[in-house]
């Protein structure tokens, strides 16, 4: 029926930028498209009329509608047969009618195969049903897939590096998925041989490629894995055991080349001999898994019956050409890139985070089973190949169970309690009668327990006997990507938000089904995963610790920062004295980042009092702050100001809701130049005003003269009174100018950047002893600021950095963000910032604060030149080596068990443990950065530095081995 | 009214099995459709400008918070907070400029509709920032249109070019009606220097930010702004 003209048609905007809910299926084939209203009608409408999407030609509308229908097939299993019947009918009828329509449909089928590979059997069934009705359609599909696959083979021969965008599916993965569809379609072919021969050929290639090298060949491993993982798809449609025997026979010849133990350690999620599980390499799991697979393939949805029921007597089969497969030389020189493919560049380990040790029984299929491997494979293909729409990805993840044999899994949102009952039922416990016979229970409790047990028993009798949770399977697959080493394939924020979205979507689903007994939401699954990572945090790779912090805070920030911190209080109490311990690192960084994403008031309300000390973000402790201030203002003012400020800072509840950062962190109170107890505050204020009002350099110079005179006079008049005495006038002036600049720009980063630093630039350069910038030259009479030698400038730049960090000590991350901008404007260098990360021997910022590590990465990746990045890295390495040396010296014991021994199991929280954790942090951050920036690291120079810098032999060998492992696998 | 041809932006996409989030929103599409001359080229620009627009932020969202959230999407060149054009306070929107288009596309793919300060952000691609767009264009100076009388079909004249989100566009052609805000202008003048939320970069001859140690003005002397949201009963007797 045509819409009346006044009724507003659904427009794109109704979809809110998400899933296009396409115009209803009532417009499907056979109906005339709505008439396009005449222009005259459109013109006569008032201006306020929302312009509509231009009405599309019939074939376009039709193609859209059919594709939308195809995309939905399978979501409702009960009407699967009907859907397949209807949609295949439309395709069979229309595919011949128009080129545009045909091409669109074929393109869409391939897109669906690549982006939603869980639906491959459905696409297969659809094409076969269509083929029954219109054999030409089947021919089109096979020809199109053939050309697509052949085209991909051709791309292997192309050496160019930038054919693919990094977010696009890699060539070999795409090939895997298209061949998989072809395998499923093989019953349509005169013979399945072209498919089986292709697989065998690819497997032989893999064997050959690996045989030609002693080292691990990434392409070979990927081919080997992709062929094996797809074999069951062919077996599901063709009961051809001989094929699987042949492929497996070739596969057994494949040499599973190992890299050195040192290299392997770089790609494992958990380090140390006490790690929670033995790391397993994916490539080594697939062959045994396939050998052990149940030949009935019970995990796939069996559509053969539906297909058979529609099969006419005489089916036309199609010829399928062999592929022209590139030779092994081409494969050998192919450089892996694109989604999924690039995961194979380095040894690929499987992440496990739902271990049976927690529950006592399996909640996910065993990691070495084919089912586990294929689910991970399919989920990761969905997640990566559809990264452009995280909404669809999360929707598909939540409904993944309907595309496999549902009864292999517990029902969605099943609780662990229910799974425990199921586990008992599986082992033959008659729960209901044992409950009924239990005399000790309160009758009411007993009643409700029996009720829920009966409910579980019913499900059990229906065949839902499994304790596996699909939610955990998909979560594990996503986390495996997020925590992939050395780099996650997409920015980690994608996985964070994907999981957060899935929680939200799942929560909405649960609320929508109030009658259901199963209410354990996806968020609980994430909670389990978070707890697993927490309890194994000390074994987790250093870089992954950072990614974990980002994930957990992103997750909490989307759900009101709600977390049960109380369960970690005991740990906090035992480890309280340690600074470098991973658990303390976690508390500090999670709470710190929560505050950065919201406000201290909000976060304080979510924390038990034991954790309140982490609300203080300061880098400098009381002693350091007072020391710094005493040098400028005398110890009396320094101490009294500290006490006053401290009290005010503790009173987080008093911060008004709309306060800006300057107010929240009491920035003005830290600016003691203005304190009335400081004898020079008046002239300091004049200098501040001079800077703020942008008055002339001459006036500024004159005020400095005035200041110096006043200091000289007053300190002579008050001998012995420390508040009048300024030890280092140059330092005093640099601090005054930079802190004034920061105060002027304290409203926000952009005010510092484009306001304050512009306004104060000339004066800053003056006090630093730097030459004037172009166009700001101004002759000054009685100039107080001669140009200085490089080393003098460096000293002043250090004062500048300290001045900023002191002022922003309550929120040093903002301090560093300001310093980053100061660096961008050329007042300081990036190496000086790296130095400052190591300035504090007792608490190295570099290994204890995620924001420092992030800033370091930003500086390396966005520096002006490669040489600068390399320099920066070398500064970092030499600093780390210096501190390894220092820590060992302090430890006073360089026996192997002290330096490399498993500090993870250390119970005591004494000074030695602290130093050993510091040492551990230095080793691990070295690994993390060398791995991340392997291409920018001069390994030879680094080797020399280690040789010359680390005296302890044990430590030297260990560090050299870490670096060596990275160097060999980076080549 | 003619609508302009948006070419590939209107063409259905069969290369993917589902909608792509890294495309201009329906808001931008509708806007472009109305704009015969620049509509299409603005859409093209929005795909490559490396700039995003973020709306529906809470007023206390800071640049630093946004930096923490968005720096994982790409290298941020600049964050421009949207300001109330009269009061120069944050008004719930901002622009972020990245160093490459992928930063902007990642943001819209991964962070659109996620929460900051408990509120879902609306992120959209943007054809590129121009000076002046940081100021809200609502008649009261904010970004959002004041209480809108929806459903009043005869009220078209006042609805102007603002959409349901109260967003104004990238064509800076609309001039504000003069004389409407004289009262507010006066008020702003009166309370201006005390406004703590002022985001404008420091300018000459205007005291900002760090305040001198002058005595606090007692509340009853502050003027109109005082106690507008406090009911009479809560005030001490001498101020009622």
UniProtKB/TrEMBL annotation, chain A:
- Residues of the MIF4G-like type domain: 365-608, 671-866
User: What is the name listed in the Swiss-Prot or TrEMBL entry for this protein?
Assistant: Uncharacterized protein
Q: Where is this region: Disordered?
A: 1-48
Where is composition skewed (Basic residues) in this entry?
1-10
Among the Pfam families in the record, one is MIF4G_like_2
From TrEMBL, chain B:
Keyword Nucleus (UniProt): yes
What ranges does the record list as Basic residues composition bias? Answer: 173-191
Q: Which residues lie in Low complexity bias regions?
A: 142-152
- Where it mainly occurs, coarsely classed, is nucleus
Q: Where is the composition biased (Basic and acidic residues)?
A: 153-166
PROSITE patterns attached to this UniProt entry = RRM (PS50102)
Localization, UniProt: Nucleus
- According to its UniProt record, which protein family does this protein belong to? Belongs to the RRM NCBP2 family.
What is this protein's record name?
A: Nuclear cap-binding protein subunit 2
């Amino acid at each position: 029926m045509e819409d009346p003209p006044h009724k507003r048609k659904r427009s794109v905007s109704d979809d809110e930028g998400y899933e296009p809910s396409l115009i209803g299926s009532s417009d499907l084939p056979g109906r005339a498209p709505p008439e396009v209203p005449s222009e005259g009608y459109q013109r006569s409408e008032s201006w306020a009329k929302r312009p509509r999407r231009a009405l599309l030609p019939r074939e376009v509308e039709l193609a859209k509608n059919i594709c939308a229908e195809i995309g939905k097939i399978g979501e409702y299993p009960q009407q699967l047969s009907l859907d397949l019947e209807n949609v295949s009918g439309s395709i069979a009828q229309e595919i011949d009618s128009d080129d545009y329509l045909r091409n669109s449909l074929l393109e869409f089928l391939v897109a669906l195969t690549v982006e939603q590979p869980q639906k491959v059997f459905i696409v297969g069934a659809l094409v076969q049903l269509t083929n029954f009705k219109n054999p030409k359609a089947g021919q089109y599909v096979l020809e199109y897939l053939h050309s697509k696959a052949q085209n991909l083979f051709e791309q292997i021969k192309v050496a160019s590096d930038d054919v693919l965008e990094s977010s696009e599916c890699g060539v070999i993965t795409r090939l895997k998925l298209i061949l998989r569809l072809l395998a499923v379609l093989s019953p349509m072919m005169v013979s399945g041989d072209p498919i089986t021969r292709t697989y065998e050929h690819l497997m032989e290639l893999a064997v050959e490629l690996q045989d030609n090298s002693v080292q691990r060949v990434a392409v070979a491993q990927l081919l080997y894995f992709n062929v094996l993982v797809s074999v069951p798809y062919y077996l599901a449609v063709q009961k051809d055991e001989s094929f699987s025997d042949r492929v497996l026979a070739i596969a057994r010849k494949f040499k599973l080349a190992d890299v050195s133990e040192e290299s392997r350690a770089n790609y494992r999620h958990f380090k140390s001999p006490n790690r929670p599980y033995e790391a397993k390499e994916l490539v080594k799991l697939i062959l045994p898994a396939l050998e052990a697979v149940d030949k009935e393939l019970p995990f796939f949805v069996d559509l053969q019956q539906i297909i058979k029921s529609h099969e006419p007597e005489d089916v036309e089969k199609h010829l399928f050409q062999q592929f022209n497969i590139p030779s092994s030389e081409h494969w050998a020189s192919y450089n892996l890139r694109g989604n999924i493919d690039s995961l194979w560049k380095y040894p690929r380990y499987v992440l496990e985070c739902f271990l049976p040790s927690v529950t006592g029984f399996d909640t996910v299929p065993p990691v070495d089973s084919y089912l586990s491997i294929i689910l991970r494979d399919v989920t990761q293909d969905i997640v990566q190949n559809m990264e452009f729409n995280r909404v669809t990805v999360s929707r598909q993840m939540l409904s993944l169970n309907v595309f496999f044999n549902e009864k292999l899994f517990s029902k969605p949102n099943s609780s662990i309690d229910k799974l425990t009952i199921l586990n008992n039922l599986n082992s033959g416990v008659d729960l209901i009668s044992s409950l009924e016979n239990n005399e000790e229970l309160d009758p009411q409790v007993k009643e409700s327990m029996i009720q829920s047990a009966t409910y579980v028993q019913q499900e059990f009798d229906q065949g839902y006997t499994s304790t596996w949770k699909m939610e955990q399977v998909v979560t594990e697959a996503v986390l495996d990507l997020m925590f992939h080493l050395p780099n996650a394939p997409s920015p980690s924020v994608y996985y964070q938000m994907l999981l957060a979205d899935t929680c939200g979507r799942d929560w909405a689903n649960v609320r929508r089904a109030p009658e259901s007994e199963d209410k354990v939401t996806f968020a609980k699954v994430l909670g389990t995963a978070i707890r697993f990572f927490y309890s194994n945090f000390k074994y987790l790779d250093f870089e992954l610790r950072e990614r974990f912090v980002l994930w957990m805070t992103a997750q909490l920030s989307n759900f009101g920062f709600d977390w049960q911190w109380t369960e970690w209080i005991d740990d906090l109490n035992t480890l309280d004295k340690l600074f470098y311990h991973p658990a303390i690192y976690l508390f500090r960084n999670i709470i710190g980042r929560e505050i950065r994403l919201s406000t201290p008031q909000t976060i304080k309300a979510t924390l038990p009092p034991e954790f309140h000390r982490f609300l203080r973000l300061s880098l400098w402790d009381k002693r350091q702050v007072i020391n710094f201030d005493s040098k400028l203002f005398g110890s009396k003012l320094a101490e009294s100001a500290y006490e006053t400020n401290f009290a005010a800072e503790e009173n987080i509840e008093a911060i008004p809701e709309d306060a800006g950062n300057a107010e929240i962190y009491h920035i003005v109170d830290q600016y003691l130049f203005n304190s009335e107890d400081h004898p020079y505050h008046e002239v300091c204020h004049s200098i501040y005003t001079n800077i703020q009002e942008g008055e002339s350099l001459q006036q500024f110079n004159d005020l400095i003269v005035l200041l110096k005179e006043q200091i000289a006079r007053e300190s002579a008049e008050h001998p012995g009174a420390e508040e009048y005495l300024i030890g280092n006038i140059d330092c005093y002036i640099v601090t005054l100018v930079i802190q004034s600049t920061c105060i002027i720009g304290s409203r926000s980063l952009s005010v510092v950047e484009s306001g304050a630093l512009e306004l104060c630039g000339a004066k800053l350069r003056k006090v630093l002893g730097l030459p004037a910038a172009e166009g700001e030259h101004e002759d000054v009479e009685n100039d107080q600021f001669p140009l200085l030698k490089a080393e003098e400038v460096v000293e002043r730049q250090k004062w500048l950095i300290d001045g900023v960090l002191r002022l922003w000590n309550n929120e040093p991350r903002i301090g560093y963000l300001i310093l980053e901008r100061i660096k961008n404007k050329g007042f300081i260098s990036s190496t000086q910032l790296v130095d400052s990360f190591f300035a504090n021997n007792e608490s190295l910022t570099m290994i204890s604060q995620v924001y420092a590590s992030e800033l370091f990465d930003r500086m390396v990746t966005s520096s002006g030149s490669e040489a600068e990045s390399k320099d920066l890295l070398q500064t970092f390495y030499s600093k780390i080596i210096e501190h390894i040396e220092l820590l060992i010296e302090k430890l006073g014991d360089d026996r192997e068990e002290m330096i490399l021994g498993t500090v993870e199991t250390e119970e005591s929280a004494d000074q030695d443990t602290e130093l050993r954790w510091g040492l551990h942090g230095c080793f691990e951050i070295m690994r993390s950065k060398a791995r991340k920036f392997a291409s920018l690291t001069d390994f030879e120079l680094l080797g020399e530095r280690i040789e010359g810098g680390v005296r302890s032999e044990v430590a030297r060998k260990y560090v050299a081995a870490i670096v060596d492992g990275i160097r060999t696998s980076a080549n | 009214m003619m609508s302009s041809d948006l070419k590939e932006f209107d063409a259905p996409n069969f290369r993917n099995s589902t909608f792509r989030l890294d495309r201009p929103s329906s808001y931008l599409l509708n806007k472009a459709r109305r704009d015969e001359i620049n509509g299409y080229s603005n859409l093209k620009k929005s795909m490559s400008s490396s700039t995003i627009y973020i709306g529906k932020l809470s007023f206390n969202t800071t640049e630093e918070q946004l930096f923490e959230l968005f720096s994982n999407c790409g290298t941020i060149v600049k964050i421009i907070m949207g300001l109330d054009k009269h009061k120069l306070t944050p008004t719930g929107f901002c622009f972020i400029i990245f160093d490459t288009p992928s930063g902007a596309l990642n943001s819209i793919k991964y962070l659109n509709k996620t929460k900051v300060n408990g509120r879902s952000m609306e992120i959209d691609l943007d054809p590129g920032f121009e000076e002046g767009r940081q100021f809200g264009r609502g008649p009261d100076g904010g970004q959002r249109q004041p209480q809108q009388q929806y459903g009043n079909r005869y009220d078209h004249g006042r609805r102007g070019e603002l959409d349901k989100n109260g967003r104004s566009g990238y064509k800076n052609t609309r001039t504000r009606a003069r004389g409407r805000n004289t009262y507010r202008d006066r008020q702003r003048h009166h309370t201006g220097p005390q406004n703590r939320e002022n985001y404008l970069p420091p300018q000459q001859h205007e005291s900002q930010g760090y305040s001198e140690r002058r005595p606090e003005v007692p509340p009853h002397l502050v003027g109109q702004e005082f106690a507008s949201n406090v009911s009479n009963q809560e005030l001490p007797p001498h101020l009622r």
